[in-house]
Amino acid sequence: MRVGEQRRADRARWGKPLDGVRILAAEQMQALPYATQLMSHLGAEVVKVEHPERGESGRGAQPFLVDEEGRRVGATYLRNNLNKRSLGIDLKQAAGAALFKRLAPHFDIVAENFTPGTMDRLGLGYEELAELAPRLIYVSISGFGNQGDSPYSSWPAYAPVVEAMAGIYEPTRKPDQPPPVVVAGALGDNGAGLFGIIGMLAALRHRDRTGLGQHVDISMYDAMVAMSDMVPHLWSMGAPAAWATAGSLAIVAGFRARDGWFVVSVMREHQFERLARLVDRPGWLTDERFSTREGWAREIEGEIRPALESWAADKTRLEACAALCAEGIPAGPSNLAADIHADPHVQAHDMLIEVPRPDDERDMQVVGNPVKLSRVAEGPIASFPRLGEHTEAVLRETLALDDAEIASLREQRVI
User: Fold this and answer.
1) Does the annotation count 189 as an active-site position?
2) Who's near 400: CB < 8 A, 6+ residues apart?
């Protein structure tokens, strides 16, 4: 689906569930921008506050494109800011902070993901803004949260840090090897962003009942502990340490087909029985080595891989997975980016949005909205904003500033 395209227009008459919700987002990088972009897909108006000259730090990521004004715009920014309006304000200037305070009461949600304490030092923390607008919902996303004590409060946090602290890497770490740190996907960021969305929606519902806003505080570390729930849960039940190792209690592994790799997950006895018959190894069903799930795991390299890969040698990944799934054995291809682009499911679900580039004939792709609603249309979607593109329009519409006030703010380099 290309930017601006309206899919399933028959549903457009219903509008979107967050139509009328306004979000003022002092945001940067990934976690909060990811959350607010999804909120915008659902109908919210998102006004993004950036430094008027540098923009937010995600603009400095690589790779980058060059926009119509000759500015480099990095990939982190490009994939998280569709549908938004860019408002350039220098919040470190007293006049900039004062302007932000004037804007806040006109929004339903103020959201920020700076280091804890930053907004308070600027005079823009929750307590101060709540005095101006008791109905305001204030959302914070940070590494270790703003509410409650944490020995890590002052630590900077990117996704791999909180993922590691939550135990996500240990199950797949090989003995005497370093943790297999993965930066693709930024689970620590996107997971925290999703919990931030849950908090925003819950706070909006609470405000409907009480008339009052509140502070929604999301710790990336908390979010990752929640998403890696199996790690502390199994430990608390006295499970052997080996159970936390990938594939130690089942067949969870990648196998080779004719054109690449596919992943199989055999977790239950009936699945193992079907696998044994499918790959023509009925003897496994009476072999003592395969009598337990731990036994399956021990025999992956010695017995199971040779048998399964021999069976799959003349099949494509999709053919092998289709045959396994037909037997009730969960399997799927290990996709590269090009595979995802060509996947008919991804295309049918509008999960890749093609965004025209100002500096290249080729489109770039940004992920679409995974929240599918039967009475909401897909799109239309606006491209990422140029730095400060909507500053004047937002200030005129929201605060009714006149030409002289806007000119004065520009002269002071506040906007």
Assistant:
1) yes
2) none
The Cα–Cα gap between 20 and 291 comes to 59
Evaluate whether 263 touches 254 at the Cβ level (below 8 Å). Answer: yes
- Whole-angstrom CA distances from 114 to 31, 57, 191, 192, 196 are 11, 11, 17, 14, 14
- Identify which of 175, 159, 166, 128 has the alpha carbon closest to the alpha carbon of residue 34: 159
Is 0.90 surpassed by the pTM of this model? yes
DSSP state of 97: H
Beta bridge partners of 256: 261
Nearest to 298 by CA among 241, 254, 249, 243: 249
Q: Which of 67, 108, 189, 222 is catalytic?
A: 189
The model's pLDDT over 283-304, given as tens digits with 9 standing for 90+, comes to 999 999 999 998 999 999 999 9
| Number of alpha carbons in the 13 Å side-chain half-sphere of residue 216 | 30
Domains defined for the chain, CATH in brackets: 9-228+365-411 (3.40.50.10540), 250-339 (3.30.1540.10)
Q: Which of 40-44, 186-190, 278-282, 326-330 has the lowest mean pLDDT?
A: 186-190
